Amino acid sequence: MREPSVPELASSIRSPLLQVEALSKSFPGVRALDEVSLEVFSGEVVAVVGHNGSGKSTLVKVLAGLYEPDPGGQVFARTAEGAIVQGSEARDALHIIHQDLGLIGNLSTIENLDLGRRHGLRSLLPAPSRDERRRASELVAQFGASFDVRAPIASLPPAARTVVAIARALDGWTRPDNMLILDEPTATLRGEEVALLFGAVRRTAKGGAGVIFISHRLDEVVNLADRVLVLRDGRLVAALEAGEYDHETLVNLITGGAAGSAAAVEHKILDDPVLRVRGLSGETVVRADLDIRPGEIVGVSGVVGSGREAIGGLIFGALRRTSGEVELGDRSLPPGRLRAAIAAGVGYVPADRHSAGAVMSFSVRENVTLPQLRPLRRRLGRLDLRQERREAISWLGRVGLRPLVPERALSLFSGGNQQKAVLAKWLRNEPRLLLLDEPTQGVDVGAKASIYELVVGAAGRGAAVLISSSDTEELLSICNRVLVFREGEVVATLEGEDLTDHRLVMESLGLGRAGAEIVFGDTEDC
Question: DSSP per residue over 476-519, as a string?
């Protein structure tokens, strides 16, 4: 293979900020990246899309230096001083914001921005708090945001946290034409927050930066990107300019023309509820009363902090209840008794799979079979490893894990594939009650359809399903009815003709409600 030439890059009339040539990365039995080449220029937003396992996460980790690429490929970047560098020097010229943002929740915006800053002799002196506060406010204001920079990061809305992460990445740039890479920045954001973040991204590109934007949300890609690169099975299968693609085109390219569609709910729903919740409170839930019948899929909607994200954990017992009763059939589910909840037939898929949904250092096989090992044990208590592997492979195949390598550590899979494995472990138990919090967060369009079919299939076998989701399209697609939370309580129940995107948004926000705590400035770019 011909060695890439730095002079070739430098001699270009319009020199790219980032150039990747024939980049490959192999793992045992898997070629995660297969000679991927791309370039990004000043002032443009380039989206990278693809299904889980397509190579997006591997690409980011290679660019970040977390993975060493296979021999032969190369990465060039332009430094802040304008020099063209490669290898480790190129990685130092890139500013990457990962899905977890890398912020410290109990520190303020001021302190998080200060962590990566070089102070020299100033570090020996007390920080001038008034100057730092003004500087932090000015930094976030560059992205159209205005909020209390003294408040802990954990208390801010997701959109504000993402703005802080971008501001920290860009802080100290001596030139505006730097490279910014955003890995699924909108995974936890709602529609209005996404629009505000887009304003920040556009301002960054307008200032001369190059931006790589990785997302599963294709509507966002269509609205934001100047160019789109499509990865499938580790290969770059398409590079399209704005105007050359729409949502359907991208779906076909990502899936190879086999995307499928959301499953329709057509099975029988029994009359008597199997789940009864009365006076439940805890975390952000003030009071909740609800019933779910066997075969019914009930959605939960609401803005961040409304109680939506806490209801599943409170019912399961993973979050601390302050009051209330939960009954599944004729059995009471006491707070904090997770084994009792599992034994009663409850499955819980939390939004935070890393800390609450799985053991990341275990293999996928071990994670899938962990909740119910008794059927796999022999007489003396030893596990039947062959049977365990067969069951794991069967369920991982049903949820579409890619690559299907059951002995691989869960931490080595992409975020969407990790979520699939967490779902598989509960579906394997044929639950009476399935609690799902953001079940398709970070999951590609093709895998969403298969997950919906699995959820609908569980309901068809008699399970009661509760889905808490920030994705209104998801709730509209498969739910029989949706409960809307606001300020810790259920304020509306929507079903039939009332179950529309418009009603969900209006009920979630509340008519005549006072302005939000976070105020964003000029959003004309949104």
Answer: HHH-SEEEEEETTEEEEEEEGGG--HHHHHHHHH-TTPPPPSSE
pLDDT-derived band at 481, boundaries 50, 70, 90? very high
> Which of 207, 222, 255 represents a domain boundary (last residue)?
255
The conformational region for residue 265 under phi > 0 = left, psi -120 to 50 = alpha, else beta, is beta
Structure tokens at 263: 């499953």
Neighbours of 262 (CB within 10 A): 16
Whether residues 157 and 25 fall in one domain = yes
Grade residue 194 by pLDDT with cuts at 50, 70 and 90: confident
Q: Does residue 453 sit within a domain?
A: yes
**Both 325 and 240 in a single domain?**
no
More confident residue, 354 or 136: 136
Task: Please state, rounded to an integer, the average pLDDT across all residues of the chain.
Answer: 81
Q: What is the count of structural domains for the chain?
A: 2
Domain of 12?
A: 6-255
Q: Mention every residue, 6+ apart, whose C-beta is less than 8 A from residue 59.
A: 23, 33, 36, 48, 231
What are the start-end ranges of the H helices in 142-277?
158-170, 191-206, 218-224, 247-255
In terms of domains, do 420 and 491 share one? yes
Please tell me the distance from the alpha carbon of residue 492 to that of residue 301, in angstroms, as a whole number: 10
- The answer on 389 and 251 residing in a single domain is no
> Dihedral of CA 133/136/138/140: which sign?
negative
Q: Collapse the DSSP code of 433 into the 3-class scheme (helix H, G, I; strand E, B; otherwise coil) and give the result.
A: strand
Task: Write the pLDDT tens digit of every residue in 414-470.
Answer: 777 888 888 889 988 889 999 999 888 766 666 677 788 888 989 999 999 999 987
Of the ranges 253-267, 413-427, 477-491, which one carries the lowest mean pLDDT score? 253-267
* Per-residue 3-state assignment (H helix, E strand, C coil) for 45-73: EEEEECCCCCCHHHHHHHHHCCCCCCCCC
* pLDDT-derived band at 9, boundaries 50, 70, 90: very low
Residue 260, domain member (yes or no): no
Q: Which two tokens stand for residue 180?
A: 């910014």
pLDDT category, 54, cuts 50, 70, 90?
A: confident
208 and 356 in a single domain? The answer is no
According to the model, what pLDDT value does residue 501 have? Answer: 77
3-state secondary structure of 249: helix
- Residue 519 inside a domain? The answer is no
92 inside domain = yes
Q: Which helix (H) or strand (E) holds 287?
A: strand 285-292
